[in-house]
Write a structure and sequence with these properties.
Shape of chain A: elongated
Number of helices of chain A: 4
Radius of gyration of chain A: 16 Å
Distance between the termini of chain A: 5 Å
Number of strands of chain A: 5
Oligomer: homotetramer
Largest sheet of chain A: 5 strands, antiparallel
Strand order of the largest sheet of chain A: 1-3-4-5-2
């Protein structure tokens, strides 16, 4: 799929005493961008949780190329790069002033309210098809 | 009641680019100290939530007298200063190197899982009596 | 002064296991709104810190009337309510779906890079006048 | 090197509305454990920053095997697994009730206050030797 774009500004409380954004916060930026991506493709995570579907994080990685600073306007480009019916993988790139500053990934599964794996194809056929099509597009 | 004591160290990620602890984190330190206080008096918040009792925060205030820094060993003295059967008020003092650095308060109520107020005297008579006694002691 | 308006959405990572926004995060929302207010009146905090002026927080208070949830679109109305040349006080109201959910205040002083108080009238006469005028307007 | 051990308890504010620790917080737990490791081997990060040496994070990865919950007592086992004079890599394992719940890594470089790479062998020969020996042990 083509990457979706999500923009936001760096907050003061996201910096640390090195004068840059604390590295843990990028994992939160990825989450913001991922939930925005899902909304952009018509999947509201608020609704999904209300319907009993949760999508926890199985893994993350992040590579910090250029530090981000308070006040920076960043653009996060996100895409779903894998989906096999059980697991989903997302990729992220953070740009600031047109420069690539950060890259990362997150891996996810689909669980019901009791934290049991969901057979997506049967339980959520529309979502299953949508994710399949997106990744192949 | 006599204040309980809770000690912890300041983490790097709790600083901001001013080189001091970000002011929002003190509200988290108060929570740590309050939940520790409850354990010290025999009330486990883990168990309370499992039993369907939640104690949300109605209000907080915090006065920052001396800044805290990464690596500082702090001691938080907490006490329950008011309890009328419906609402509870806690007070906090943060010390570092025997100097008073921060003071604050938090106000709370007692709700059930549906966010409805709980009649403590009837529903949790032991807890009611314990809190009453503590405040009067 | 008339309150400035700042809008943002509640992030997933800002919730806690009570299913609502953790109370410490409101202090961060106030900071976002305050720094936005300063930009709206022509004072960039990024520039101010670069010029050696820092505005730490002396006190905060917050009153939680209605909880906020993941996905909520909130509007924060902020204003400077006091300024005497040494200290500044800001007031905040958080609205969600046109309902007042949170109120709060923060108190501030003006320091130089060595954490010494700044004589605003002499050192930053324009900023001094601007803040004076705003509060009286 | 043999892994150092660092213990701490999960705080309420570290949970999210899934009822488990938010995945971004593990990156903070790794930092706590890493700075504790450095102290255990005689390297105080407070002193290092005061002496003008900073150790930013170049990369992180984290694999979430079992979720952590509020109140959990966790043990983080950390070790330095690579050091070539320029870059350092640390590995982490989080245990709860003797079960491995999380694994992860972080990559680091060594910079001076102007964010320039430091020739460790020349500028900090003792630290250089210590890290070399640790990794080979």
């Amino acid at each position: 799929m083509e990457a979706t774009k999500y923009c936001r500004k760096i907050n003061y409380y996201e910096t640390d005493q090195m004068g840059i954004v604390h590295h843990s916060n990028y994992i939160r930026f990825f989450e913001e961008a991922r939930l925005d991506l899902m909304e952009q493709i018509g999947l509201s995570y608020v609704e999904m949780e209300e319907n009993g579907l949760i999508i926890p994080v199985l893994s993350v990685d992040c590579s910090y190329k250029k530090p981000l600073h308070f006040g920076d306007e960043i653009e996060i480009r996100s895409s779903i790069v894998k989906y096999d019916g059980l697991k989903m993988e997302c990729a992220y790139e953070i740009y600031c002033h047109d420069e690539l500053c950060t890259t990362g990934h997150s891996g996810h599964c689909f669980l019901d309210k009791d934290m049991k794996p969901v057979r997506m194809k049967r339980a959520y056929p529309e979502l299953y098809t949508k994710l399949k099509q997106l990744v192949e597009a």
